[in-house]
Write a structure and sequence with these properties.
The complex is a heterodimer of chains A (323) and B (277). With 323 residues, chain A is an all-alpha fold. Chain A is built from 14 helices and four strands. In chain A, strand 2 and strand 3 form a beta hairpin. The radius of gyration of chain A is 19 Å and the shape is globular. Chain B is an alpha/beta fold and 277 residues long. The two termini of chain B are 34 Å apart. The chains are: A mainly alpha (323), B alpha/beta (277). Chains A and B meet through helix 9 and helix 10 of A and helix 2 and strand 8 of B.
């Protein structure tokens, strides 16, 4: 394998490059699962994997950007539930789907803006800020809905989860569109450049004239918006909006992002890396399901994968820091 | 106290054009005044060395000049116009570049990305504005080669040696043809050979008309390249001298006197005082 291809070629450069080890892991898992289960390499199974991956995948875009910028967002699961609940409530009350979706995304933006403001301007640790926001939003979703779910009857919304275009589910197309947009934006715009710069050395970025607070605010807003879109897609898949929806999704999202090469220390990561991390994570999930491993054990495996990815990143960064 | 007004015999630089004039600059952090009524003029194509003990206010002074700290009082004039630097960007827009002690580089970005950080070259693609990565890489490669270096501008800064990183910071400062270059302890982490090269570069910049403000603990650096030395003590200008007007040993003795407030014997014996071991 030509290392130049990975460090300097189509797969990104420097801080945004894909880890070749990740691609090798995907290939190994794919081959192992293909031989281990006759159901793995079937169109239906792969489409199911893709559909299961979409919701986490969309939320992972915002989380990737936040983590590259040296931040963290634990409130995405709560935002997903709240956005789904709000849109379902509005549709139930007679609003059009466009209005409901717009309001849900605006709610995600408002949550992201609140996180971003507290983190950027009040200098509060992002873990604590978004952990508090996780509890506040989830709690409010329960209070407002009184713990009840709303069944979605709007066909346009449901068709996002069930409909297909050229054989590909609509929600998978939404995911691909978002990934392509950010895969172009991150390496080719000042937005992407400043995300990496702020994560790498926020002080240097500020001294270079970059308004780090404003960019951080925008970054959390994007994360809130992608979480809201993910919440709408989740409701489309499940056919209902629940205050308890997406509970624990943070684990999957953060695991995919870190597995994809983003560094918790900031400055490193790539949207396409997260896409590959997602594929690897969901292939492993799928493999465990096909092997009839109990779901509790699947949680254990996911936690172990996250820990291994973080340890790997720490060792890699440690080596680089020592040079 | 105006720095020019404190000049002793033979130290006048009055015929030269002032580039930056600081009048009554004060910088307070709470009740503590890091700078107290500082007056200083830097002329076009002049190299001014700033020395002083730790905590004397040297770094604060260059940070006020580079827009990192807004002054608490006083005025800054740049090319005979009052200016107010609310941010480093304001200072850079006026042609004042700064090389920070820690270099302020993003280690995860490559050389070209660091050189153009905050001032990226863009190109229009339909209604969108994208980074012109090829143009920036080309310009950065030219900068690096003009500094007599050969490393790849696509390399991450975190992978470079200390000397190479220093040169990236220099290349970034020079990219936009600065009128003044402020340097805060630029030789602190360099080997003797790298220091020599950096000082040669500073001398060359001065000959090209760039004004230099050099903060350093190393007397030898300052003596080597500066036309004028300003001593800061307790946040104030304690005095200044022209190093080329005196033998180095005498200049050293004068600088030390101004820094400490104590009388130091001149080892050269020029002023009749005896050498101190």
């Amino acid at each position: 394998m030509n290392p130049k291809l990975f460090s300097d070629g189509l797969l990104g450069r420097g801080a945004a490059s894909l880890n070749p080890g990740l691609l090798i892991a995907v290939v190994i898992v794919f081959v192992v699962l293909t031989f281990a289960s006759p159901y793995f390499l079937t169109v239906n199974n792969l489409l199911n994997v893709a559909k299961a991956l979409v919701v986490v995948g969309i939320a992972a875009v915002g989380e990737t950007i936040v983590i590259i910028a040296g931040g963290f967002d634990l409130s995405i699961g709560s935002t997903m539930a709240a956005a789904g609940m709000l849109a379902a409530y509005l549709v139930d009350s007679g609003a059009g789907i466009a209005v409901a979706f717009t309001c849900a995304i605006l709610l995600g933006i408002a949550i992201g803006a609140t996180n971003g403001t507290i983190i950027s301007y009040f200098k509060i640790n992002p873990l604590i800020t978004t952990l508090a926001m996780l509890a506040i939003i989830r709690g409010l979703a329960f209070v407002i809905s009184d713990g009840r779910e709303i069944v979605i009857t709007n066909q346009a919304w449901l068709s996002l989860g069930t409909g297909r275009f050229a054989g590909i589910p609509f929600i998978v197309l939404v995911l691909i569109a978002i990934y392509l947009a950010f895969a172009v934006l991150m390496p080719r715009t000042t937005f992407g450049r400043y995300v990496y710069a702020i994560g790498s050395n926020a002080r240097a970025a500020r001294l270079a004239g970059i308004s780090t607070n404003r960019w951080r605010l925008l970054i959390y807003i994007i994360c809130g918006a992608t979480a809201a879109i993910a919440g709408l897609m989740l409701a489309a898949r499940t056919g209902n909006a629940r205050p308890a929806a997406a509970m624990g999704f943070e684990l999957d999202v953060i695991t995919a992002v870190i597995l994809g090469g983003a560094s918790l220390k900031g400055g490193r990561g790539a949207i396409l890396g997260t896409a590959v991390g997602l594929i690897l994570l969901f292939m492993i999930n799928n493999g465990l399901t096909l092997a009839q491993v109990p779901s509790f054990w699947q949680q254990v495996v996911k936690g172990a994968i996250l820990l291994a990815a973080v340890l790997y990143d720490e060792m890699r960064r440690g080596r680089t820091d020592d040079t | 106290m105006s720095s020019d007004s404190t000049n002793g015999p033979g130290t006048t630089s009055g015929a030269r054009t002032p580039l930056i004039e600081l009048s009554g600059i004060t910088k307070k952090f709470g009740a503590y005044a890091a700078l107290d009524d500082v007056n200083l003029t830097i002329h076009e194509a002049e190299a001014v060395g700033i020395i002083g003990d730790n905590g004397a206010g040297k770094s604060t002074l260059v940070k006020v000049l580079s827009g990192v700290y807004p002054p608490s009082g006083g005025t800054i004039r740049f090319r005979n116009k009052d200016v107010r630097f609310g941010s480093p960007l304001d200072a850079r827009r006026n042609g004042i570049e700064m090389i920070y002690q820690d270099l302020a580089l993003c280690e995860d970005l490559n050389v070209a990305q660091n050189i153009f950080l905050g001032r990226e070259i863009k190109r229009n693609v339909g209604p969108f504005r994208f980074l012109d990565r090829a143009a920036m890489a080309k310009a950065a490669a030219k900068d690096i080669s003009e500094l007599g270096l050969t490393f790849d501008v696509n390399r991450e800064v975190g992978m470079l040696s200390g000397g190479e990183r220093q040169m990236v910071a220099v290349a970034r400062a020079l990219q936009f043809d600065p009128a003044a270059l402020l340097m805060d302890e630029p030789t602190a982490a360099l080997s003797a050979e790298k220091i020599r090269k950096l000082l040669e570069l500073v001398t060359e910049l001065k000959s090209r008309g760039v004004s230099i403000l050099l903060v350093s603990h190393r007397f030898t650096d300052i003596l080597h390249i500066c036309d004028r030395i300003v001593v800061i003590r307790g946040g104030r200008v304690a005095g200044e001298m022209m190093p080329h007007d005196h033998p180095p040993a005498q200049t050293m003795a004068m600088m030390t006197e101004m820094m400490t407030g104590d009388t130091i014997d001149d080892p050269s014996g020029d002023d009749g005082r005896s050498a101190r071991p």
